[in-house]
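Reopening this one. Same input as before:
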Amino acid sequence: MDTQLEARVMELLFARLCHDLIGPISAINNGVELVQDYGDEMQGEALALIGESATKASQLLQFYRVAFGSARAVDGSGIEIEEGRQRTLDALSSERVTIQWPDKEAEGDGEASRLTVKLILNLVLLGVEILPGAGEVCVEIKRGNPGQVQITVQKNGLSMSEDLAAVLNGEVLPNELTPRTVQAFFTRFLAKSVGSDIRVQCGNDFISLVVEI
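Same output, byte for byte:
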């Protein structure tokens, strides 16, 4: 795979980031408008809305900084798996999606290359993309030579959509991508960047994404 991303991929990724941030940022604006329009009458509710939305926007930005930022540090240092784990839990866990990523496992994994952590976070994000509605995303990391990352998505009646399957199989060109499929394309790009690929395992009520690292 080409080491450079096509402009079409970058455009769709940027659009996705903006889409995800519009919600909490708009909510902050709504809270400010409540204070302006109603003053003390709505101040408590408005401040709560502003605080919650600002926190969510900050969590998303911190997650995206690791997941989409530079994979190379100036000093060549890596990044702690635990930091990636915490960014993921803060940004992606919700009433709809449960992220199962044991803290002791993350602490034991220690430091990894920035590209590897970037790949892991994008695999988790892809797992969330696969879920239609509520469900669970489980993260398992096995260190070794090679090591392995396995993201398992669980939900009753779960199945892989044809468009995502085609992207993960390398059957879709950049100019054929959509906002729904660009995440899968980018995650596969990262897997190729570490000399691997995404192996998909499907069973009754689960889909696993497996990558050797």
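So the earlier flakiness isn't reproducible anymore. For the record, The longest helix spans residues 7-38.
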